[in-house]
């Protein structure tokens, strides 16, 4: 793994109502050029970003989630071309939120695409489905867990609800990830809290950084993006030499970017003086006598 650091840009992204794909593309260009001008190397946009394009559809399509998902597929090639071009032109590695992609059978994967300046394009599908996603009846969870390299640093992607599950994130970290990128979208305070607690817990367990992007504002026209809550946040383990509350940076304004440097070498150095090292001590909970609890009679 490289010792070189990465400067992260994490979005609290306001949902608008573009009338054309070109309007959406102009907004993406403004946002990503701003992140690049601030010195970022990696930009993380939020979950369900593609559903902002639902505003371009006629009434009756944009009001119907199933119809809008079907109509969205016509933009897939332009979506990929847009972010591939912006990654190339800005020099950013771009997590382009998520796109609800038809698998060819009229069912959809919630896919986070990662575009690189050199032309690379990889992705991670969301693994676990929320109650909302299950109720649609047409969204499936992914079946593959991946780790990627950005400028020599290994990273994982955990899409929103996925960050609430310890074992897949642990598997990514065991494969070398020390930075986990979390595109998210939550519509209630409880949902925002669950994702936040998941991010803090995964940072603690794995001694890694977590970068969570969020959607912001209201979009009454959308059946999926109608209400949006939460703050874009960058998390770290709570230990010596790192923030005591685990918060490296957090949005305070209505929307915008937050920035922070991720330094893998510094993270390794703090492990040597750690008060605790959950990542190092993880195997202790896997001892044979601890794998299953048994009822002790006589209590």
From TrEMBL:
InterPro entries, per database record: C-N_Hydrolase (IPR003010), C-N_Hydrolase_sf (IPR036526), UPF0012_CS (IPR001110)
Keyword Chloroplast: no
Record domain CN hydrolase: where: 6-264
Record carries keyword Hydrolase: yes
Region (Disordered): 269-299
Biased composition regions of type Basic and acidic residues, renumbered to the chain: 269-282
GO MF annotation: an example: hydrolase activity
Keywords: Hydrolase
Annotated PROSITE patterns: CN_HYDROLASE (PS50263), UPF0012 (PS01227)
Family: Belongs to the carbon-nitrogen hydrolase superfamily. NIT1/NIT2 family.
PANTHER family linked to this entry: HYDROLASE YHCX (PTHR23088:SF50), NITRILASE-RELATED (PTHR23088)
Name of protein: Carbon-nitrogen hydrolase family protein
């Amino acid at each position: 793994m490289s010792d070189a650091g990465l400067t992260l840009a994490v979005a609290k992204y306001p949902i608008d109502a573009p009338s054309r794909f070109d309007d959406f593309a102009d907004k993406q260009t403004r946002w990503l050029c701003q992140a690049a001008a601030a010195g970022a190397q990696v930009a993380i946009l939020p979950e369900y970003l593609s559903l902002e394009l639902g505003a371009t559809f006629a009434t009756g399509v944009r009001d119907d989630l199933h119809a809008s998902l079907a109509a969205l597929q016509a933009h897939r090639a332009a979506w990929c071309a847009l972010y591939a071009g912006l990654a190339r032109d800005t020099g950013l590695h771009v997590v382009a939120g998520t796109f609800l992609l038809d698998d060819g059978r009229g069912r959809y994967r919630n896919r986070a695409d990662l575009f690189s300046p050199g032309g690379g394009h990889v992705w991670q599908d969301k693994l676990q489905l929320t109650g909302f996603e299950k109720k649609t009846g047409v969204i499936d969870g992914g079946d593959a867990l991946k780790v990627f390299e950005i400028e020599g640093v290994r990273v994982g992607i955990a899409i929103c609800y996925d960050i609430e599950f310890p074992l897949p994130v642990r598997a990514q970290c065991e494969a070398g990830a020390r930075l986990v990128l979390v595109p998210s979208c939550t519509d209630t305070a409880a949902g925002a809290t669950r994702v936040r607690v998941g991010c803090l817990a995964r940072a603690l367990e794995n001694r890694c950084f977590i970068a969570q992007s969020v959607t912001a504002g209201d979009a009454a026209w959308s059946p999926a993006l109608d209400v949006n809550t939460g703050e874009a946040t960058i998390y770290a383990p709570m230990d010596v030499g790192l923030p005591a509350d685990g918060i490296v940076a957090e949005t305070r304004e209505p929307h915008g970017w937050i920035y922070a440097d991720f330094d893998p070498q510094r993270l390794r150095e703090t492990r040597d003086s750690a008060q605790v090292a959950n990542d190092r001590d993880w195997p202790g909970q896997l001892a044979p006598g601890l794998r299953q609890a048994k009822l002790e009679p006589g209590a």
